[in-house]
Write the structure tokens for this entry.
Amino acid sequence: MSRLFLGLMLAAGAAALGGCATIVGDETHPMPINSQPSDASVVITDEKGTEVFRGTTPATVTLQKSDGTYWGGKTHTVQLMKDGYQPQTISVTPRPNGWYIAGNLVFGGLIGWFLVDPWNGHMYKLSPPNIEATLPAR
């Protein structure tokens, strides 16, 4: 059996099991958060207003990409505050990733696009992928 044939068989098997984003993606996103100056307070809330993180910079926070519903991308609001500096609020939004768009075109097809990937959050990337904030002095 040639390597090409074996590769094609493995790809076809993977496609049969689920969407491409499900195979190569993750349900969570590690979000690095940095600020100038450092030691700023960070509060992250989700689309329901639920606090999902409270701490100081620098930090890396694991954020969920899906709210658990069909096509339910999870949004977050990152608030950075420090005495003597103007606070900043940054929205983090889900966007379809390349594996969901192009990968399903090649491998997963309609099953990946409409049944598997929209349920689990693997189809999303979060934007921005990291937070680099500069807090202006008051």
